[in-house]
Amino acid sequence: MKRANSENSGGSTAESSGHNTPENDEPGFPPTKRLLARSEERGDSDTEEIRQKMNGCGRVNGEAIEEDRIAILDSGAQYGKVIDRRVREQNVFSEMFPLATTAKQICETGKFKGIIISGGPNSVYAPGAPTVDPAIFSCGLPVFGICYGFQLLNKWAGGGVSREKVREDGQTEVRIEKDSPIFEKLESTERVLLTHGDSVSPATVASGFRIIASSGQHVAGIAHEKEHLYGVQFHPEVDLTLHGRQIFHNFLYNICKCKGGFTMRSREQICIDEIRQTVGEENKVLVLVSGGVDSAVCAALLHKSLGKDRVTAIHVDNGFMRYNESDSVIKSLNALDLNVHRYNSWPEFFLVP
Length: 353
Description:
By secondary structure, the protein is of the alpha/beta class. The protein folds into two domains: 5-17 and 284-350, Rossmann fold; 68-255, 3-Layer(aba) Sandwich (Rossmann fold), CATH 3.40.50.880. Helices cover 29% and strands 27% of the residues. Helix 9 links the parallel strand 14 (311-317) and strand 15 (339-344). Helix 1 packs antiparallel against helix 2 and helix 7 (264-279) crosses helix 8. It is elongated. 33% of the residues are buried. Mean pLDDT is 83; it is low at 1-32 and 56-65. Residues 262-353 form the GMPS ATP-PPase domain. It comes from Mesorhabditis belari. InterPro entries: Class_I_gatase-like (IPR029062), GATASE (IPR017926), GMP_synth_GATase (IPR004739), GMPS_ATP_PPase_dom (IPR025777), NAD/GMP_synthase (IPR022310), Rossmann-like_a/b/a_fold (IPR014729). Keywords: ATP-binding, Glutamine amidotransferase, GMP biosynthesis, Ligase, Nucleotide-binding, Purine biosynthesis.
C-alpha cells in the first residue's frame, strides 16, 4: 500500500498524547466523571472545581456561573425533545427523566428550579396508565403540566378527567386569562395546537385551581398560583402554538426565577477548561477532521483551548467526498487559523487487489 499524498496547510505534524486512563475509565463512562476520576487519582489542586462543574457550575473569566436546571418528566410524548429544546433556547439547562422519577431524586440534588411534565398517548384513568410520584406536586418546586401532564395534575388534586366522544385535534383558538403569570404578554385569544381525546370540564377542575384557558366547553388550562402549579391541555412547545415560546419564558423566568446562565459562552468556556485539564500544559493533540459539524467544532475548541502550535488537524480525502468538498473543508479550517494537513488518499480507497 502506497503512502498517501500530503498537502501541508501550515505547521508541522504534532503527536497526540494523553494521560493514563484510570481503572474505572470504561467505555460509556461519562467524560465529566472520567475527568474527575483522573483528577482525584493525580491529587490535582483543582479537583473541587471539576466537581463543581459536574454539579452545574461553569466559569467565565474566573467567575462561577450557576446553571439553573429544569427537570422534564417524559410521559412518552412525541414532542418530548421539543420541550427540551424550547427550554434550552431560553438559556436554561434541562434534563429529561422517566415519568416515574421520584420527587426525592429531583429535589435532593438542589439543582432544579422547576419541573415540566410532558404530554403522552395514554389516558390517566386507564388501568396501568403511567403515573407520576404524587410528591412531585408538593415538593415545593413549580410544576408545569402539558397535555397528559395537565391531566395528571388535575387528577392528583382531586379533579376529574373524562373521555370525549369527539377528539380535539389541530390548531384552534383558546381564550386565556391574561392575569396569570404564565400567560404574561399574551393576547386574550391565542391560536394553539390541541391533540387530545380526554378532557377536563369546568365542573371537574380540582378544588383550589382556577381556569386560566378554555376551548369551547373544555378546560385548556388551570393554575394554582399560590402553589406554583400550572397545566395546559394544548402544546406550547410546537410552532402551531404561536406564542408557545413566550409561555415557556414566563414559566422559566417569572415563575421558576431562572437566571439564564446556560449560554453558548458559558458552555464554550466549560469545554475549554475541560480540554486544558485533560490535555495538560505541554501535550499536543492530533485531531481528525471530516468537515462535519462534530469534528469541526471539536477542532475549533481545541484550537481555542491550546493554541495553533499544540493542535494538528488532519483531513483525509477518501475519494467519496462530494465534488470539491475537501477544498471547501480545508478553506474553512484555514479560516480558523488551524494547523491543518490534507491527505489525498483516494488511490488507497480505490485500489483493487
